[in-house]
Amino acid sequence: MNNLDQEILNYAISAFGFIAGFLIHTLWGAVKDLRKSHEVLVSEVNEVKVLVAGNYPTRTEFDAKITAFFAKMDILDTNITELHKRSNLCPLGKKGGCGNGRSSDG
């Protein structure tokens, strides 16, 4: 092997080493970025899990809210019924009012 062949071999090995080093460096940077994004994603998922699991009402709080809700619904139902009784509008289409209110006949 003469000097020129040895020099070409050295250049080829150097070029191969440069390319391999560049690829390894690029892959290592991508792995570091993925690790960082994975840590951020895990922390966000944990926050969502705590947010969802931590905000459920207790049984007594739920019962109190439902009782208050149905009490308000009963008041609305009573008010609507009273409005129908006082008006000439009847849900069944009766012509004399709905019973206790004014009638449209006279």
What topology emerges from the helices and strands here?
Layout: H1 3-54, H2 59-86
Give structural notes:
With 106 residues, the chain is mainly α. The radius of gyration is 40 Å and the shape is rod-shaped. The protein folds into two domains: 1-56; 57-90. It contains two helices and no strands. The protein is 75% helix and 0% strand. It starts with a helix and ends in a 20-residue tail after the last helix.
Q: How many β-strand runs?
A: 0
Helix and strand element order:
HH
Radius of gyration based on Cα positions: 40 Å
**Fraction in beta strands:** under 5%
Mean pLDDT: 83
List keywords for this structure.
106 residues; mainly alpha; 2 helices; rod-shaped
